[in-house]
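Narrative summary of target 7.
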Amino acid sequence: MLQANALPLVIDGLVKRFGDKVALDNVSLEIVPGEIFALLGPNGAGKSTLIHCVSGLARPTAGELRVFGYDTQREFRQSRRLLGLVPQELSFDPFFTPFESLYLQMGLMGVQPDARWCEELLELFALSDKRDAYTRTLSGGMKRRLLVAKALVHKPKLLFLDEPTAGVDVELRQDLWRTVKHLRDEGTTIVLTTHYLEEAEKLADRIGVIHRGRIILTEARDALMTRFQQNHVIATLSPATAMSAALPDLPANSALRAGELVVPWLLPEELERVIGTLRRHGELKRFRVTHTDLEEIFIELIRAAEEEPS
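Modeled conformation, tokenized:
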């Protein structure tokens, strides 16, 4: 049962130590209903450890975690029933079929087995034709899809996806993206970890960056992209004199460099205005657009964090 007005996840002062190593250092985070939150970080930053602490696979050293208002340690049964986890590692019983795996998982999660819901999940993840095959015979991509289906058998309100598209081909990755969006549209709140920055850029409503066990940033994706955006139009006009003539009519910080106009832009409508201005002043001979993506922003954030004193 959901508690009124409770957030899907509240982490307050989470610390996790393994001996002398501090894996999570005073992490605080709130996840809001209905969002896709992408948690990014280098290898060893603490992403999976955080997920393990929330889902009960690791015991926090200090701090408080609540899933829809339920304490994950004192009220484990209630919190775990509301949470689904797709682990990073492929884990399956080779002697069960996909249908049997889902049916058994329902019992493990404490819900009444429902054959119809199993069939619906198999259909959703394009596994119906493998319903009665041993899971050991499935391809890597099919096994990955089965893991996601298993995490949904108890219809969780909060879903953790830990590197869900690791090792899958481009087509399957896009299929999983569509499924994630569908789940969000159906009301599931999703926390996603991924090394594919394009994935986070396409899917996430909000982005968090963790480094050395500390959250160094949480921000709406669009706001983050806008804040770090460094888009440019690079163009050559004919006659060459048209480029100097065009400069006063172009956005601030436009420049003529090495025989090319370099013009900053931010929003799509600004790009349209820049192109219109260039065409009014001359013939476009060469033209290209550069765009800052999330990967470049991530690298810059981690570089800045590395330069800060410990």
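The mean pLDDT is 91.
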